[in-house]
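From the pipeline queue, job 12 of 40. The input is one protein chain; the requested action is below.

Action: predict structure.
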Amino acid sequence: MKKVFLLFVFLFLLFGTISSSEAVVDRVVAVVNQEIITLSEVEKWAKPFQEKIITEDRLERREQLQEIYRKVLERLIEEKLIDQEVKRNGIKISSKEVEATLEEVKRRNTATQEELEKALAVEGLTLDAYKKQIEKGLQRKKLIHWSVKVEMKLEEKELRDFYQKNTDRYRPNESYRPSHILFVVPKEATPEEVKEIKKKCQAVLEKIKKGSDFREMALLYSQDASNKDMGDLGYFKKGELVPAFEREALRLKVGEVSGIVRTEFGFHIIKLLDRKGTDPLPFEEVKERIQADYYESEMEKAYKQFLSTLKERSIIEIKL
């Protein structure tokens, strides 16, 4: 089942949204050159992001939800503009191209035809419907390939400037050593219980701010197995810990203590104990990577400019 789920995630990321032709016509939230986008479409694609909101504060939750809806609607408007441009340019995709892409999807996911169809069925899609989505995705790619151009006449200075501004990309085997104090939040906890747990976490954080030893606080209060090691979790590489925890740990300077951080496990107070491998690789050693990264960044800028031009010459009415 996990394999089927991962396969669907790959399909969504590769080809974007599923056709809205079957969407329930409820309330129009945008009109793009006389073509509509409905609230049900926005809600459908906002749902996975909405489920990740963890705040218990109603006002904060509403603000986060509004931001998610805004970003989803912006994406849907951009896709609508691109599809309209595809139609205007008469871009066609052959059945051979569709079948080749379908085989590539199965190859990358080591999935059989049966597993692919099961993954699609979970989302209420038939194979024929998915092939139409592949066709639309390929049309979009072909349009972008035709329309977005980047002239690559690079000077050494431009590459070195890019390298200096993006040194984080070229740090080899960077690792960090966080320590934490965890207050577990059970999945079945009520909002009142969550508030009480957070209150206890805040009280410990205040003690640390006033000079209490972090190691002693971890030993006394942390509900994680690492409490026996005074909260020390050892060394990790990027991507090995849950994103919310890692983002905060890497934001800290060595010896610095975080505020309260919420993850799926509960409330954390984090201290960064050490960081290794922070020196970037020499420019000459990664010059080819820098050129590729620079080209990718320029392509992204050109694509955004392309979308901006489409928006400027279109009539877009937002009603959300």
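Job complete. Confidence is low (pLDDT under 50) at residues 1-25.
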